[in-house]
Amino acid sequence: MNSSEQPGLTPLTYLSTSEALEVVRRSLRYAWDLRYRYLVKVLIVVASIFPPLILVWPFKIIVDSVVLGNPISEGMTEYPFYIQPLVNYLVDKSPLTIMLTLVVFGFFTIVLLGIFGETGTTGSQRDVADSDLAEGTDIATRTENEANRARTNLGGILGYFEFLWTIRITHLINFKLRSVVYRKLQCLPMSTLEDERIGDAVYRVMYDTPAITDLCEKSIVVPIQTVFQLYIVLLMLDTSFPEAPELFWIGTTGLPLFFIVFLIYTRRLRRQWELSRDLGATTTASMEESLENILAVQSLGGQQKELDRFSQSSKESFKGYLIGYGITLLVTLTGIFLFGGVVAYAMVVMTDLVINETITPGDIVVLYVFYSRIFTASRSLGGLWLDLQAPIAGMRRVFLLLDLPVENPLDEGQDETTEDLEIRQGIEFKDVCFSYPDGTRVLNNINLTAKLGEMVALVGATGAGKTSLSYLIPRFHKPESGEILIDGKDINRYSLKSLRSQMAFVFQETTLSEGTIEENIKSSNPNATDEDMRLAATTAGANDFIEAQPDGYQTHIGTKGSKLSVGQKQRISIARGLIRDVPILILDEPTSALDPETENELVRTLHKASKSKLVIIVAHRLSTIRAADQILFMEDGEITERGSHDELIGIEDGAYREFVALQSRVIQQE
User: Which CATH number fits domain 10-48+118-402: 1.10.3720.10, 1.20.1250.20, 1.20.1560.10, 2.60.40.10?
Assistant: First the structure.
């Protein structure tokens, strides 16, 4: 397979036909749970074939008997059996009576079954120009219509029912797939997500998943509908005009014509739609990164550069879609041109048959409808594989994400016998090594034991591996070698859900969610009481500034806590960790933005909490470190010294002692 460099969770590689078929097969598995709903949908669309084929015969009667004045006599054999009762009723009736009768017949046919269909929520079922102006012509801006897509070839009561039924199917299958993809993202190792652009992941969840709607409809409903339509119309041609067999053979040429034309361009179009979606993901990622770093962009005067970058990626995305749309249009026009030649020949034949009185002028109306239905079905069935290429490209990107490996199969709930974890002793590292995906060694031969009832501090210079070590405990990263044990058992025996239910982690980079202060603090423990929340906030030094807010704990903090200072966000983050009643509490630089008084109060509280918990702190500040029961001093990914503050400070020429002395000198200079 050819490939090209594209940003995203996986590189862009072009699909072969067998791989495209596999994408279709996997997509249809999601439709299996909705098989009975799809069955009803199929029955309805098959029923939608008949109304226009029934209603066309009254038009023949109008032309032959009302316009041309040919009388309707009893025993006429030029009408099919299903319209014969109506014809018998019209025998010896005046032209006015015939016209009024047919109007009433047509009205009830339209109201009950419908004939003027093509109602839908996507541009393909409405005026193309209007829909494109309203929705845009790129993948992203059309996606939500795909996720809420419905269409019907019927009008009337039956068409209304089909429309609602289809919307429900679309909602269910999109919700199911989006939930699966989002759950997968939550199970991916942090090392995978850290190396990728978040915008690409968002694009796959929001903009690629709706492709399943189109793919399932075109794989399940369209083939059955078009095959039935071709069979029924050709059968009617054969039985209704037995004296003119050439009309039947002309009708059979449509399918092979479209099939041959469309097959030639299938591979090229599939590659273009794959490229178009990757370019769309690049645009989304570009916008996400720009907004994520908006403060740096504005402060450094980088607005124009970011605008140029976004404009370029947006133009490329639009260009990719336009090329794909252009190829589709070119192929369709080619098919129409060839079929137009067939229709022109058919018109010559029909004119000759009318002149020879083999058929009547009214039959031309019938034949026009028959051939238009043959054309529609031939276009749909012959171009089915071509039309599937766009949704295949989208679903392929979804499956590439779903196929990414997780560190532990238990994380995806594949094993229902997962042990429940309740930590009673502590954790142990045995010869643990860890490297980044690029091969950079971060931790080397880490051995440590930390028990409940202890406060452990990880200390060292920036880049020593402290945070990486702490990330191994909740399995944000997976060790390259060695073992991590909890109560003597490998942590891989437990699912992420079970493991992390026993831990609370306060990150160095504070992340808050849109909402109120209360919602953010209670997010780690929704069942916590208001008293628990205030106690956690007081311990974190946050209660005073929260109470000073106009709405107190109900104050909205903006996107990512944009209405709060760095120190305020950090205190809320600490409160969020403290409110969770778990055996292990891990804090990464928890006091970096706290004032000395708040820091001292927090350290005292953490030391008190460590009597029943294991508290692990990654820290630089001496005031935080000295209270720890065990200090692990790290250099270049290794633990070089361990012990209490007093023990380590007593080591002559010790690394920890030098670290403390350096920090003391800095404080004195300040």
Answer: 1.20.1560.10
Select 452-466+495-669's CATH number: 3.20.20.70, 2.60.120.650, 3.20.20.370, 3.40.50.300: 3.40.50.300
Give the three-state DSSP class for 368. Answer: helix
Beta strand extents in 550-655 (DSSP E only): 584-588, 614-618, 630-635, 638-643
Cα–Cα nearest to 455, from 641, 623, 606, 622: 606
Query: What are the strands, taking DSSP E only, across 424-552?
Result: 426-435, 441-451, 455-460, 481-486, 489-490, 503-506
pLDDT along the chain (670 residues), means of 10: 43 70 91 91 85 82 83 68 81 84 78 51 36 43 54 66 85 89 78 62 79 89 90 86 82 76 71 69 65 57 68 74 76 77 83 85 86 82 78 86 71 51 87 86 91 89 88 88 90 83 80 85 88 86 86 85 80 86 85 71 74 85 82 91 89 86 62
* Inter-residue contact 98 to 122 (CB < 8 Å): no
- The DSSP element (H or E) to which 103 belongs, if any, is helix 95-112
pTM assigned to the model: 0.68
For the chain, domain boundaries: 10-48+118-402, 452-466+495-669
- Separation CA 293–CA 196 (nearest Å): 16
Q: What is the DSSP string of 235-294?
A: HHHHHH-TT-HHHHHHHTTHHHHHHHHHHHHHHHHHHHHHHHHHHHHHHHHHHHHHHHTH
